[in-house]
Amino acid sequence: MRRLIPSLALPVLLAACAAPGPTLEQRLATFINRSEGDLVAQLGVPVRSYETEGRRFLQFEQRQTVMVPGDPWGYGYYGYRRPWAVPSSYAVVQCDMTFAIRNDRVESFTLRGQGCG
Questions:
Q1: φ, ψ for residue 13 (rounded to 5)?
Q2: Domain residues of the chain, as ranges?
Q3: Which of 16, 30, 42, 110 is the most exposed place for a label (fewest CB within 10 A)?
Q4: From CA 28, how far away is CA 106, in angstroms rounded?
């Protein structure tokens, strides 16, 4: 008699390996060679801009509040019980996206921050 468990687990494992969608870099790469107007229409008004040597730099910010799970049982790194539990907390992660514009076209972009992953 054949075992069904491995054959049933394979589709689940394959589904878990599937990517949830395009990364932030892949989504922003679609703006390369598009106009500055298209960029602003899609991302909104930039928080900063700077011009130098014939290029214009537009910075956009993305902020997100994430939950950092605590340790409700109070176990330490080595499995010993601490006298207190560590509650969950919240943190703000940020991603700064800077686009370089030359001749009204998006030339490149850079990402900076822990929220860009």
A1: -65, -40
A2: 19-112
A3: 16
A4: 11
The number of beta carbons lying within 10 Å of the beta carbon of residue 75 is 13
What are the residues whose beta carbons fall under 8 Å from the beta carbon of 64, sequence distance 6 or more? 92, 93, 94, 115
Q: For residue 79, what are its two tokens?
A: 């499995």
Answer yes or no: are the C-beta atoms of 95 and 109 closer than 8 Å: no
- pLDDT tens for each residue of 82-101: 666 677 789 999 999 999 99
Secondary structure class of 86 (helix, strand, coil): strand
DSSP E strands, the chain: 48-52, 55-68, 89-102, 105-112
The pTM is what? Answer: 0.69
**H or E segment to which residue 16 belongs:** helix 5-17
Q: Is 97 exposed, middle or buried (0-12, 13-18, 19+ CB in 10 A)?
A: buried
Q: What is the largest CA-CA distance in the chain?
A: 74
Break the chain down into helix, strand, coil percent, rounded to 5: 25, 40, 40
